[in-house]
Fold this protein.
Amino acid sequence: MWINVIPCEPGRHRLGSFADYNTLQDASKTHMPSPLQLIRVSASAARHFVQSLLQKYNVPSQNGAIVAKCLVEADLRGVDSHGINRIPSYLARIRQKVLDPSVSPVVNKITPVVTQIDAQNGFGFIAANEAMNTAIKIAQVYGIGMVSFSPIRLPHYRSGVERINSWAYPPIACGAPAGENSIPFILDMCPSIAARGKIYKALRRGDQIPPGWALDKDGLPTTDPASALKGVMLPMGGAKGSALSIMMDVFSGHVINPHDPSEPADVGHFFVAIKPDLFMTLEEFKGRMDYLYVGPWNVRR
């Protein structure tokens, strides 16, 4: 039996989710085994569940809260390939002793605007949270803050960018604050055609993946998720996507480790926070963000 747990918050719709039980039942005919049971839980209950699991694996409560918040937020946004279903893989890595659940990042200030963080082979969520908060604090004073961390949000008025090195296709994330009549701009993607998490999702559900997503270990096109996980993802835009990946690796370091869940995820991250009023007033910046937001929405469809 498949049990689909959907975290939800009052008054908040989960983008990309099944709207109700009937819709879910219809979708299950083609996408999931039957019978299917839908369980709805509150976001707070989902966070508590994740934190409770992590505490049993010696994850400090404050660190568990950060991990739980990130995973449940992904589910609430409809990106369930990166939600709480990732927990089993994290716990497996802890049991295999390739992820240290109890460590805290070590911060090393290099210059007034540059900081390096040693993640101590702990949860990336924790080091990333420390890195972004550090970059924001630096930017509040100097206008720009840069932080890198290895191995391996946007509630503040900062433009931010994150790059991760991991051959082949490292993700890139960017955020800019909203204007008076718009919402924050948030980009979070990898330059592959699809995220690796979607391959795992297809494998769990017994689905095939679309043609053109991946190659198997012999370099042949495949629609089988198990074969894809043993091979490579394909880049978006062909050579341009590969070039973008190489550029991001230059930014985030040359510490490259093949994807192997039984080994430490030895990858680097690079964070930048920039005050939006460095080159113009904050009001001007907000006006430009409103223009960027309203323009596309007013395009005739």
Remarks:
- Residues 13-35, 153-159, 162-167 have pLDDT under 50 and may be disordered.
